């Protein structure tokens, strides 16, 4: 089986999911919540910033088509990983930059990629992306799934940098 799971948090999950779906090798995405303490949180609860969850996209990718390094390259180009608990106008811990890994190899690669980004000084500030083992994932409400496909005029705060 070449399919691998990772959860990526980069601010509002609507834009992250939309951009990831356009990437060759991404098999499936689902938006949801991870990293918090509340069991089966709702969107209004997560938005308070008190549950500890981040808005994330569950990504299943085919590693025979796209490497984890390429997934991370895409991830780091679609948001600002140097802003703590913030992406554009979205502010709070639920919008933090985070990689929830499913394998130790992913952890090693993620930490290495972050170190290389910091060493390269491609960003003005240091990368603050958290790297944590997946401990939970709760699917977001159905209206959030493929939100920007269902609502093409919806809020999109992500762009893909070169």
Q: Tell me about the largest β-sheet.
A: 6 strands, mixed
Q: How many separate helices?
A: 5
End-to-end Cα distance: 31 Å
The radius of gyration over CA amounts to 15 Å
Structural class: alpha+beta
Please outline the helices and strands:
Elements: E1 3-10, H1 13-21, E2 26-34, H2 43-47, E3 54-62, H3 68-77, E4 86-87, E5 90-91, E6 97-101, H4 104-120, E7 130-133, E8 138-139, H5 147-150
Parallel strand pairs: 6-7
Antiparallel strand pairs: 1-3, 1-6, 2-3, 2-8, 4-5
Features:
alpha+beta, single chain, two-stranded antiparallel ribbon, 5 helices, 162 residues, 6-stranded mixed sheet, Peptide Methionine Sulfoxide Reductase, Chain A
What does this structure look like?
The chain is 28% helix and 25% strand. By secondary structure, the protein is of the alpha+beta class. The protein has 5 helices and 8 strands, in the order βαβαβαβββαββα. It has one domain (3-150): Peptide Methionine Sulfoxide Reductase, Chain A (2-Layer Sandwich). The protein is globular, with a radius of gyration of 15 Å. The longest helix has 17 residues, at 104-120. It starts with a strand and ends in a 12-residue tail after the last helix. The strands form 2 sheets. The chain has a 6-stranded mixed sheet, covered by helices on one side. The protein has a two-stranded antiparallel ribbon with strand order 4-5. α3 crosses α4. It has helices at 13-21, 43-47, 68-77, 104-120, 147-150; strands at 3-10, 26-34, 54-62, 86-87, 90-91, 97-101, 130-133, 138-139.
